[in-house]
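so my prof wants the structure for this chain in the tokens format not the other one, which i didnt know existed until like an hour ago. anyway here's the sequence
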Amino acid sequence: MNRNDMLKTIKAPPHHWDFIIIGGGATGLGTAVDAASRGYKTLLLEQHDFAKGTSSRSTKLIHGGVRYLAQGNISLVLEALRERGLLLRNAPHLVHNQSFVVPSYDWWEGPFYGIGMKVYDVLAGKLGLGPSKILSREETLARIPTLEPNGLRGGVIYHDGQFDDARLAINLAQTIVDLGGTAINYMQVTSLLKSHGLISGVVAQDVETGETHELKASVVINATGAYTDSIRRLDDPTADAIIAPSQGVHLVLDKSFLPGDSAIMVPHTDDGRVLFVVPWHDRAIVGTTDTPIDDVPLEPRPLQEEIEFLLTHAGRYLTKDPTTNDVKSIFAGIRPLVKAGEEKDTAALARDHTILISKSGLLTITGGKWTTYRKMAEDTVNQAAILAGLDERPCVTETLRLHGWLENAEAENPFSVYGADWIGVQKILQENSAFAQRLHVDLPYFAAEVIWAARNEMARTVEDVLSRRTRALLLDAKASIEIAPKVAALMARDLGYNEHWQKQQVANYRDLANGYIIDGSEN
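here's what i got, hopefully its the right format
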């Protein structure tokens, strides 16, 4: 997957697409995979990098949604559990079974949550990941030895899915290209083209060069997540906002806070959300908050009260209370929740997806979550094909193996997230002894991965590599800052950039990464 090749494609005749999809997050990428897999001429445009926004800032779970089960939204849970099973089959190198323990401190919690999780098992049916069961106090502590023992009566264990969100996004982009579609990052849609009052394409500007492109299409799809309303207003400046943005924050702690393989799930926190402490890439992720916000910045920042909320709640359930000094990284994402009348509490808004079609024919898909991205895409392409008057073609993504598909990928293999592509990474390791060096003693990444990302995954900046091609920024923000010069030099060598580019990249990355450190203003 090469950006220059993608640019050549949009400049080559014929200059007409069946689908132009705006937005390179989970929804847009999934929609483009679906469209391309049906044989439609498909173009995806992303203003920044793939999964720059919400889609790289999730809790890293592919799950049915225990909270929605408690709310009685059975249809959403059913759909999500089915999609969870399909994704486990279609991307086994990135999605795996994760056990969760619900600790019980009151006499009623064990039986109550035990029954709830049995319902969860039944809803999953043949695509279930394993049966839930009630645990004794001893069994609970054996699975999570750092769980607060005072007052602990036992627990309930159940199974859900875990994944690497940004890596899945990159694999989706690669799948688009594998299927004959075109996907371009750093290509911002600045206006919509209309003919006789109907949407006929977009005007897009190459962020790297400033070059402008007029691109025609049978249908234009707005799949921009939290930025949905900004694209809708390119179509109609008077359009009412339909997004109620909510910020979710996560803390990343050292693995010592959660040894073993099981995660912790607390069904009800002070703000009505579920709290997770989840093992991920040899770290522990604590999340999440639910804070209504007014603006949707490209780089959201955690609020002090959100940090305190997570530290306080984690401290209630862990023997060692985490402090700000223990936080390796902190990240925030914005949920594109769809407004529901006068509802003010975003924690109460469900994650069902919504499809809207404007008077001029702009199709907007929004809401939803990572787990249901494939079904969202299927529904979107079905509607868009009808809207555009295209030949209706059946969806094939239920059984479509995504790029990198590799069954039984070994989790302990440092290159397991690449799936079948790990052979290519291995070849780069052997090109040059310098490429076989670890980038940092506290991070699991090698120099070869930087080269691979630049050559094959359309990484254009140091941030792209450290935040989304690798997950260094989330695993240890300070360590990632230390290796930024090395990463810039490797990229410059391979992409032909000069020393000025390297210095600018390092400075830009340092400014960004400081926002992932609680005391970042001091770095």
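also thought this was worth mentioning. The chain is about 35% helix and 25% strand.
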